[in-house]
Amino acid sequence: MISSARQGSPGQRDSEMLQFRGTGNKKPYTFSSQxxxxxxxxxxxxxxxxxxxxxxxxxxxxxxxxxxxxSKKPFLGKESSASREAEARRRAMARKKAxxxxxxxxxxxxxxxxxxxxxxxxDIQTDVHLEELYDYPVSQTFGAQTEFDLELFSxxxxxxxxxxxxxxxxxxxxxxxxxxxxxxxxxALIADVFRQAMREVLYEDELEARERQQRTLCMRRKVEExxxxxxxxxxxxxxxxxxEHTQMFDEGEKNEKARMSILxxxxxxxxxxxxxxxxxxxxxxxxxxxxxxxxxxxxxWLTEELQADKTKxxxxxxxxxxxxxxxxxxxxxxxxETTDVKDIEQPEELFKEMESITLESDNxxxxxxxxxxx
Length: 374
Known about the structure:
cytoskeleton; about 375 residues; Radial_spoke_3
C-alpha cells in the first residue's frame, strides 16, 4: 500500500500518510476538493539579466525602464509569444513601408534608370562631320562678263500696219482743267462740312446751356423749398409762442380776477372805523349815518365798489383808506343831493322814513309771494 502511494500524486500521498497516522476512533482526514496553489510567482532570470550584451545603445536595453514613474513597469522576465508576434508584425510593417518608400522614390526619379547587371555605359560620337563655327567665315569673289551686242529677238506677232489710222475730233469744251472744275465743288463740300460742324457745335453749346440752366433752376427750387420749410417752421414756432403767451395772458387775467375777488369785507371792516372817525372830525357824519355805514349791506356794497375799481393790488392801508373815504364821501354827497339833507333839521327822520318805506315794500312782497314763505 505504501508502494502504491509513492507512485501516486503528492496530494494523494499526503492524504494516505494522514490516514496511517490516525489512531483510536479518529476518522481519517480527507479533502473535499483537490488542493491547488493560489498563485505562481514567476521568478526573474538573474543569469540572463546579468549577461553582458556587448556594446549597444543603452536606450534599447530591456533592463532600462523609460516613461513615467506612475505608469506600470514592464515585466523584465521572458517575453511572451504575443509580444514576440506583435514585435514581428511591427518590423514587417516597417520593412514594407521602407520598400514602398524606395519604390516611390525610384518612380519619381527623373534621371535614367539604374543599369541592370552585365551592362555598362560607353561614351560614343554620334556626328560624323563636325563643322566649326566662325564669326567671319572665309568668302571668295567671282566675276562674270555679260554681252552688250546681242540682237534682241523681234516679236513675230507684230508688224507694220498697211491701212490708214482713224482720227478722233476733241472739242475744247470736251476737255477741262481739273483744278478749275473741281475747286468749286471741293469748296462747296468743305463749306457744307464746316457748316454742319458749326451746327453740331452750336447744338452742343445749346444743350450745355440748357443743362446749366436746368441745374440753376433745380438749385433755386431746392433753395426755395428749404426757405419755405424754414418759414413754415418759423411760422409754427411763432404761432406756438403766441399761443403760449396768449395762454399765459389768459391765465394771468384769470389770476387777476381771482385776486380781485380775494379782497374780503374783513379788511374793509377793519378800515371803516378809522374812515368814520375822520368823517366825524370833518363834521360830515352823524350817529344815524354812522349806524348805516357800519351795516353789513353798506360794507358789502363798499367791497363791490372797491373790486370794481380794481383796487386788489392796493397793499397799502393808507391808500385803501383814502379810497374808502372818497367813496363814502361821494355816497353821502349823492344822498344829500337826492334827499336835500341840508334843508332837513333832523336827519333821523329821513332814515325812519326810509325804514318805513322798506318795511312796506317787504310786506307787499310777502303778500304777493305767500308760497315762498310756506
